[in-house]
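Data card: per-record layout.
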Amino acid sequence: MKNAHMWIIKVTHSRLETIKAETQPMVNKVKEVHHDAEPYLNELQTRVAPILKDVQEASEPLRDELMEKIEQLAEEVEDKVLKEKKSVRKKFFNSTNN
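The structure for this 98-residue chain is written out next.
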């Protein structure tokens, strides 16, 4: 039984070593890409992020105004639909009473 456990451990260890060897080039490439991209990421954080924040802050009042207008239009449409329903109902009942 002990031999079976040792064999399983050896096979597992061997497979792990194989996986490490096969994936190491990919890991190295990812590290290289990350290293190459780091200056651009830093520039994004220092220059672009504040610009995006400014744009978001500047557009916020417009967004609020737009949402108010959308809500107003939705209420107007709802009112028109209710009036139309009442009108149709009234016409239907008037026609059945005659």
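Known properties of this structure: The longest helix spans residues 2-97. The CA atoms of residues 77 and 97 lie 30 Å apart.

See the next section for split statistics.
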